[in-house]
Each structure stands twice: as structure tokens, then as C-alpha cells.
UniProtKB/TrEMBL annotation:
Membrane topology: Multi-pass membrane protein
Occurrences of domain Major facilitator superfamily (MFS) profile (ranges): 21-434
Keyword Flavoprotein appears in the UniProt entry: no
Localization terms from the record: Cell inner membrane
Protein name: L-fucose:H+ symporter permease
Matching PANTHER family: L-FUCOSE-PROTON SYMPORTER
Organism of derivation: Heyndrickxia ginsengihumi
Transmembrane stretches, start-end: 20-38, 58-79, 86-103, 109-128, 149-172, 205-224, 259-280, 292-310, 322-339, 345-364, 376-397, 409-428
GO molecular function terms listed in the Swiss-Prot or TrEMBL record: fucose:proton symporter activity
Main location: membrane
Encoding gene (name): fucP
PROSITE patterns: MFS
GO cellular component terms attached to this protein's record: plasma membrane
Record-linked NCBIfam families: fucP
Length: 449
């Protein structure tokens, strides 16, 4: 007996999940996780090879997340005018282009050219994230939309672990740390050695190119459902122009607070992961970059575990209360890093990753919920993705503070302040939810009489 064909509902959701297409879309999540975690490797490598300050090395993240910021809304327009499949394929092509630019960058041996390559990768990833997050939730019935997205998102930290392992074994070498080796060499020899080390950055990106081409071919060959709402829904949505939407959102105070919280959270997460390797190298002069990168593997495993624990707790308790607890614990762990000048501070940085697990999705969902007029939701979601620009700015701030104080450990006061802000955000959300419940109970009171 043949199965009933998949039907598209009027709201864009499907009668059941097409598993091959869903698996392919879910496979995109570890692909951008690998790219993001490789940045943490590049920051350490570039600092030594180009003799950069911590602030200058943090520009790796600025170029990367700056691309996200600039492309989020154009990516959403491509989806609106064409399809999710076209947007995903566009993202994969830019991703391949960015990886390919590492080859001329390694031969030119200029920091600026590497930043251009990372910016191109970020353009591709902005297309992928803007399309895949929504598309994953749409590939099936609306009842299980959140579950499908959560399942897809669990693959993200696995990609992060893969990226770190590729960097650990293909970019970092054995022996003493790169900076120590170059300190012992005459200037000309150190320069030649640095250019040789830059060639190592090609290996993981060469691997990524082959994987991306294979995924692109699979997407070209596979037929995907449109998952677009019917014409009447489209017409009501298109009535809201970009200026009208921005004006509406500008007067929504809770939406603006959510944007700031997402900006702060993303910046905090990126900066902790960007400088964990540097923290380990500062606190233990007897380890090299390859050994120190193992701590990032532990961090991403902790992030993966933290997501599962949070999902369990959120299913039983108030999400805001769970996230408030996570944020307070995370703030205390970051305070420990600032105060304790030994290797236990590195393990505290790893533990902080457990607290990162549920933040992005929870802030995202809460912020969209306060947009009551649904014709503005599409653009509101794109603006939330743009809040990822925090990953470009906060690491640069911490790098500047590290240069100013002469201590990477003390500079962790920057993400500590960020986590305190996120704690305040969730505390205020708890108060707002109580106020809403009181207002609703007062409105219902006359009906009960």
C-alpha cells in the first residue's frame, strides 16, 4: 500500500515530513558550526604569524559576523522572491567561494586577504542560517515545528567539534607554541616560517570545499517542497513594507530589549570561545596551540550537553526561570576566571559553555512572541538574525581590554558583564509575564461573575 502523497497546507507547513529533504537541511547546521569554530583556531594562528594585538586578532570575528549582519535581510528577500532551495544553494556557493579564497590569501600572506575570505564565507552562512532555520521548522506539520528545529540545531555543536579537530590536527603543529618558536628565529627566518605555517590553514578548507560541493550537488538533484503560504496569506504579508515594519518595531519596547539581549548574548558566546585557547596558553606556558585547542573540544561538548539539560528543564519549568538560573551561574563562572590565576580558570570557561546552550533559541522565540501583528514577523526574524553582529563587536572589545590590561584572563570581565545583562533581561521577562497574567485574570473576572 503506497503512502499518501505529502500535501502543503495553506500556512506553508506540510501534511508530513519528507525525511530525505529534512535530513539534507539538518546537515547544513554542522556545516556553519564547523566554519564558526575554525575561527577560534585562526585567531590563535594569525596572532602569532602576523604579530597581532588581541584587538587586531579579534577582527577575524568582526569580518565573519559582520557578513551575517549585512546579508540577513537580503537573504530573507531572496527566500521571499524565489525559494528556500535557491537561498540555500546561493549560500553554499558563497561558502565554497570563501573557502577557495584561502588559497590566494595564503600565498599573498596578508591578514586583510584572509579577512576578505572569511567575509565571503559569512555571506554564504548568512544565507544558510536565514533559510535553514525556518525551512527546518516548515518541513512537516505545524504541531512539531519547534521539535524539528531543535533536532536540527543539535547538530550545530557537532560541527563545532569537527571544526576544532580539523584545526587542531591540520593547522596547529607539534612542539613548542608557534609564538615561542618564532621568538627564537631571526626576523627573516621567522617571516619565512610564518608564511609556511599559513599554508597549513588551507588543509581544513580544502576538506570543506569537497564536502560543500557534494552537498550542493545533492541539493541540485533533490526536489524540495516550496513551504510557502497560499496567495492570500502572501498578500496580507506583503502589505507591510520595510519602513512600515521598522516603524512598528521601533515602538515595541520589549522587541528592542530582545534585540539588545540577543546582540549581547551572541557577542558573549563568541568572545568566550574566541579566547579560551589564548587563556590556556597564557596560564600554562608549557603547552602549545594544538594541546590548548583540546579545551575548545571540551567547550563544544559542554555546549552540546547544556542544550539537552536545558531542553529537559524547560519542558518542566518556566523557560525564563531556567534561563535566569543559567545566566546567574554563567556570570559566577566568568567571575571565577577573572579572579583565579591558574588553569582551573580554563575549566571554568569550559563550564560556561554549558550555560550557553539554551540562550539563543529562547531569546529568539521570546522576542518574536512580542510581535503581535504577524505581518511584521518575517522582517522581525531577519532583524533578530542581524543581532549576530554582537559576535563582531564584543570580541573586539575584549581584545582591546586584554591589550589595555595586559592580561587575557582579566579581560574576561567583558563577557561577565554581558552575562549579567542577560540575567537582568530574563529577570525582567519573568516580571513581565507575571504582569500579563494579572491583567488577563482581571479581564476574565467579570465573565466569571
Amino acid at each position: 500500500m503506497s503512502r499518501k502523497p505529502i500535501e502543503q497546507m495553506s500556512d506553508g507547513y506540510l501534511s508530513r515530513t519528507p525525511y530525505i529533504q529534512y535530513i539534507l537541511v539538518s546537515f547544513l547546521f554542522p556545516l556553519w558550526g564547523a566554519a564558526a569554530s575554525l575561527n577560534d583556531i585562526l585567531i590563535t594562528q594569525f596572532k602569532s604569524v602576523f604579530s597581532l594585538s588581541d584587538f587586531a586578532s579579534a577582527l577575524v570575528q568582526s569580518a565573519f559576523y559582520g557578513g551575517y549582519f549585512l546579508i540577513a535581510i537580503p537573504a530573507s528577500l531572496v527566500i521571499k522572491k524565489s525559494s528556500y532551495k535557491i537561498a540555500i544553494m546561493t549560500g553554499l556557493i558563497f561558502y565554497i567561494l570563501g573557502c577557495s579564497l584561502f588559497f590566494p590569501a595564503s600565498h599573498m600572506a596578508t591578514y586583510t586577504m584572509f579577512l576578505v575570505a572569511l567575509f565571503a564565507i559569512a555571506i554564504g552562512l548568512s544565507f544558510l542560517e536565514t533559510s535553514a532555520n525556518t525551512y527546518s521548522s516548515m518541513l512537516g506539520s505545524s504541531k512539531y515545528a519547534t521539535l524539528r528545529l531543535n533536532v536540527s540545531q543539535t547538530f550545530y555543536p557537532l560541527g563545532c567539534i569537527l571544526g576544532i579537530l580539523l584545526g587542531k590536527y591540520l593547522i596547529f603543529g607539534n612542539g613548542e607554541s608557534l609564538s615561542k618558536q618564532m621568538e627564537k628565529m631571526p626576523a627573516a627566518e621567522a617571516h619565512a616560517f610564518g608564511i609556511k605555517m599559513l599554508q597549513h590553514t588551507l588543509s581544513p578548507y580544502r576538506f570543506m570545499i569537497f564536502v560543500l560541493i557534494a552537498v550542493l550537488i545533492l541539493f541540485i538533484m533533490t526536489k524540495f517542497p516550496a513551504c510557502k503560504s497560499n496567495s492570500s496569506v502572501k498578500e496580507s504579508t506583503e502589505k507591510a513594507g520595510i519602513l512600515e515594519t521598522l516603524k512598528y518595531l521601533a515602538h515595541n519596547s520589549r522587541f528592542k530589549k530582545g534585540i539588545v539581549a540577543q546582540f549581547i548574548y551572541v557577542g558573549m558566546q563568541v568572545t568566550v570561545w574566541s579566547f579560551t585557547i589564548r587563556l590556556a596558553l597564557e596560564l600554562n606556558h608549557n603547552i602549545n596551540e594544538r594541546s590548548a585547542s583540546t579545551f575548545m573540544v571540551y567547550s563544544y561538548i559542554a555546549f552540546f550537553v547544556g542544550k539537552f539539560i536545558a531542553n529537559f528543564l524547560i519542558s518542566r519549568f518556566s523557560p525564563n526561570k531556567v534561563l535566569l538560573s543559567y545566566s546567574v551561574i554563567g556570570s559566577l563562572l566568568l567571575l571565577y576566571i577573572v579572579l583565579v590565576p591558574n588553569m582551573t580558570a580554563v575549566y571554568a570557561a569550559i563550564a560556561v559553555s554549558v550555560m550557553f546552550g539554551p540562550c539563543w533559541a529562547t531569546i529568539y522565540a521570546h522576542t518574536l512572541e512580542v510581535v503581535k501583528d504577524k505581518k511584521y514577523v518575517e522582517t522581525a526574524g531577519a532583524i533578530l538574525v542581524m543581532a549576530i553582529i554582537g559576535g563582531a563587536i564584543i570580541p573586539a572589545v575584549q581584545g582591546y581590554v586584554s591589550d589595555l590590561l595586559g592580561s587575557m584572563r582579566l579581560s574576561f570581565i567583558v563577557p561577565m558583564i554581558c552575562f549579567i545583562y542577560v540575567s537582568i533581561y530574563f529577570y525582567l521577562e519573568i516580571r513581565n509575564s507575571k504582569t500579563v497574567k494579572k491583567i488577563d485574570s482581571v479581564k476574565e473576572a467579570p465573565a466569571k461573575l
